[in-house]
Amino acid sequence: MADTRTLFQKIADGDIPSDMVYEDEQCFAFRDIAPQAPVHVLIVPRKPIPELNDLTEADEQLVGHLVTVARKLAAREGLAAGYRTVFNCGPAAGQTVDHIHLHLLGGRSLGWPPG
Ligand code: 5GP
Asked: Could you tell me if the CB of 32 is within 6 A of ligand 1?
C-alpha cells in the first residue's frame, strides 16, 4: 500500500533521522536540516494538517499549544534576546512541506521585513 505519511510524520516515526528536541502527545520538534539561524527548530503537530488554510476552530487549542511549546523551547535554547516564530503558508510564502509547522528562529539578529 502507498505510504501516505508526510515527511514530518516519517520523522516523528523515526523512519527519517532527525535531531529531535521535544515531544509530547500533540506535537514534536526537531532541528531544521538547513538552519537559517543558529537556532532553527520546527514545531509540528502530530495531526497532519497540510497548511494554515486547512485549520478549523477545532484546531485552535492545538495551534496555541504549538506557540506555547515555541516559547518553552526558546527559553531552553537561551533565546532571551529575542526570537521569531513563522508559519509559511503556500508557495508564495515558501512553504515546501505540506504539514503545518512553526519555525522557531533565533541566536542572531533577524532582519525585518523578511525576504
Ligand atoms: P517550509 O519551507 O515548508 O516552511 O519549511 C520546511 C522546512 O523543513 C525547511 O526549513 C527545510 O529545511 C526543513 N526540512 C525539509 N526536509 C527536512 C528533513 O528531512 N529533516 C529536517 N530536519 N528538516 C527538513
From this structure: yes
Q: How far is the CA of 66 from the centre of ligand 1 (A)?
A: 17
pLDDT tens profile 26-69: 999 999 999 999 999 999 999 999 999 999 999 999 999 999 99
Give residue-wise pLDDT tens across range 8-30.
Answer: 999 999 999 999 999 999 999 99
Q: Could you tell me if the CB of 77 is within 6 A of ligand 1?
A: no
d(CA 104, CA 102): 6
**Chain-centroid distance, C-alpha 31:** 9
Mutational test site, ligand 1, from 21, 28, 32, max ligand atoms within 8 Å of CB: 32
Domains along the chain with CATH numbers: 7-83 (3.30.428.10)
Is the previous residue joined to 113 through a cis bond, with omega within 30 degrees of 0?
A: yes
Q: CA–CA separation, 78 vs 75, rounded Å?
A: 5
